[in-house]
Amino acid sequence: MKRVFLFIPVIIAVVLGVFLFAGIGKDPNKLESALIGKPVPEFTLKDLHDEERELTRELFQGQVSLLNVWGTWCPACRDEHDDLVWLAEEKGIRIVGLNYKDNRDDALVWLDRLGDPYQVSIYDPRGRLGFDLGVYGAPETYVIDAEGIVRHRHVGVVNEKVWEQDIEPLVNQYREKI
Amino acid sequence: MVRAVMAALLLMAFGPSSMAQSDDVYSFDSRAEEQRFQTLISELRCPKCQNQNIADSNAPISKDMREEVYQMMSKGARDEEIVDALVSRFGEFVRYKPEVDRRTILLWATPVIAVVVGFLVVAVIVLRARRNGAGEPAMTDEERARASRILAEDDPDRTP
């Protein structure tokens, strides 16, 4: 009987070890979006290119889109920009841009100079839609299905690897459902 | 000179703390409301700078969250409504006090479990000691006699 008690520390150590090991390698800065499986929040915002044109969440209806949150103040957005252009041009992905807490003139200069991967650009200078989406750090990229439901969020730069591993399979999966 | 140094030290100790506060100023109808606001923002966690609450954090997102808390408060929202509104956007992560449910029950129960286990360990040790003690007395009669002899010999005049 006493022998059994001697194993208790070992058992505790193993259980703790397994528990802690599961956490190793996870990036604590990447949070699961609270909006997964929910529709894109309602919004009424202006088009970045056209002050007169109002955009609502209806624009996500009918096809699978990526929603990319960016701003000219965000260095990492510059990093991923070329990859977004590549996705839009080579892969034919519909990317909706959310210009977040930015200024229209700067944003237009940026798109003019670096290329515009966005089929639609939402202008959100006060960050209202960003806040409702739970954006906590640009760049963020959401996969939105053809019914306007948020399916995935990627926080950080989208590059070829992220595209192939995390985003492309989801885009294909939801495209098949249409 | 000493005074000047003291003044500088005092300034260093107390000056920046008032400056470190966020620059946004909220006005409240009553002291109680202000207290409520402070409690709320100290129990909400910043998603960007993860080990700070939104009261301490200067991240833009924390500023937005404080603003939202304030706006909702001025519209008469209850505390739970405010917290739920933020959780629905940013996830359970922003709660420093997670709700008690199936996933968090172990977290909440850990202190109780630890105390109970502690009591059990102490109880086992005490019971065991008592059982051992009951079996054989600590000293035999001979030892007891010797001990009292030694104690009696303890003469206060004798120097060691």
Low-confidence stretches of chain A: none
Shape of chain A: elongated
How much of the sequence lies in strands of chain A comes to 15-25%
Measured as a percent range, the helix fraction of chain B is: 55-70%
Class of secondary structure makeup of chain B: mainly alpha
Please tell me the overall pLDDT of chain A.
91
- In whole angstroms, the N-to-C terminal distance of chain A is 64 Å
CATH class call of the largest domain in chain B: Mainly Alpha
How would you sum up the global shape of chain B?
elongated
H/E order of the elements of chain A? HHEEEHEHEHEEH
Number of helices of chain B: 6
- What is the fourth-level CATH superfamily of chain A? Glutaredoxin
Major beta sheet summary of chain B? none
Kindly report the CATH topology of the largest domain in chain B: Helicase, Ruva Protein, domain 3
> In angstroms, what is the radius of gyration of chain A?
21 Å
Order of helices and strands of chain B: HHHHHH
Greatest contact pair?
A-B, 16 and 14 residues
The CATH homologous superfamily of the largest domain in chain B is named Cytochrome C biogenesis protein
Strand order of the largest sheet of chain A: 2-1-5-4-3-6-7
* Biggest sheet character of chain A: 7 strands, mixed
Q: What key phrases describe this protein's structure?
A:
heterodimer; A: alpha/beta; seven-stranded mixed sheet; 6 helices; 40% helix; 19% strand; B: 160 residues; Helicase, Ruva Protein, domain 3; 63% helix
Care to describe what's here?
The complex is a heterodimer of chains A (178) and B (160). Chain A has a single domain (32-176), classed as Glutaredoxin. Chain A has helices spanning 2-6, 8-23, 75-90, 104-114, 128-133, 160-176; strands at 45-47, 54-55, 65-70, 95-100, 120-124, 140-144, 150-155. Chain A has 178 residues and is an alpha/beta fold. In chain A, strands 2-1-5-4-3-6-7 form a 7-stranded mixed β-sheet. With 160 residues, chain B is mainly alpha-helical. Chain B has 2 domains: 20-94, Cytochrome C biogenesis protein (Helicase, Ruva Protein, domain 3); 105-152. In chain B, helix 3 packs antiparallel against helix 4. Chain B starts with a helix and ends in an 8-residue tail after the last helix. In chain B, 12% of the residues are buried. The interface between A and B is medium-sized, with 16 and 14 residues.
